[in-house]
Design goal:
By secondary structure, the protein is mainly beta. It is 11% helix and 52% strand. It has an eight-stranded antiparallel β-barrel. The protein starts with a helix and ends with a strand.
Length: 211
């Protein structure tokens, strides 16, 4: 009986003396990172903040249309694609490719144009939805017939005006609209008698998309 008690005591002592098995933790287990990635528990990635409208960097394309009247006998209708970027804070540079239908006294005609312009967005609303800008530019228009009648089929297209943009969605799409001075003239390259220039007021609207 004494031997049994003694043996039981030694067995208990040995059990107490045995160290506990180490517990694996993510900090001590070299395979923990593999397990995390396998379970989809990857470390969060830091994404750069989106560029605000008016800051240099992104390119935009604007698709739109406009119409100009000279308050006499002509209506010039334009469809255009404009590509632009910001060269500096709120300073937008763009080039516009346009197609025209010109209804005028005499034969109507069609044409194509290339215009370079700049816009300065001088006002932003506090909620960043609206901007207001002034613009100026110049380009060239080629037409199938003389524009105006008695002039030439190649003319200059200076412009100046003002407009606004409005944010439509979270992707940066904006509505663009404005009014501008519309002028067609050949700068007297064939003399005063061949420069029946035209002045009008153009209204336009477009949708501006980030590229």
């Amino acid at each position: 009986m004494d031997r049994a008690v003694t043996s039981l005591g030694f067995a208990r002592a040995d059990a107490v003396a045995q160290p506990a098995a180490p517990v694996s933790t993510p900090e001590t287990d070299p395979d923990a990172g593999v397990v995390r990635r396998a379970l989809g528990d990857a470390e969060p990635q830091i994404r750069p903040a989106p560029v605000a409208f008016g800051d240099p960097g992104p390119w935009y394309v604007t698709l739109g249309a406009g119409s100009a009247v000279d308050f006499t006998d002509a209506v010039d209708t334009l469809g255009f694609a404009r590509f632009s970027t910001f060269l500096g804070k709120d300073l937008e540079f763009g080039f516009e490719v346009g197609g025209w239908f010109i209804a005028q006294e005499g034969p109507d005609t069609g044409g194509a144009s290339l215009v370079f312009d700049t816009r300065y967005h001088f006002w932003h609303s506090r909620d960043a939805l609206w901007t207001a800008f002034g613009e100026a530019g110049i380009g060239v228009i080629w037409t199938g017939r003389q524009v105006p009648v008695g002039g030439t089929d190649v003319n200059f297209l200076p412009r100046a005006g003002a407009g606004m943009t409005y944010l439509l969605d979270g992707q940066g799409t904006r509505l663009t609209f404005g009014l501008r001075w519309h002028h067609i003239s050949n700068a007297r390259i064939n003399g005063d008698d061949r420069n029946p220039s035209r002045n009008g007021l153009m209204g336009y609207v477009g949708v501006q998309l980030p590229l």
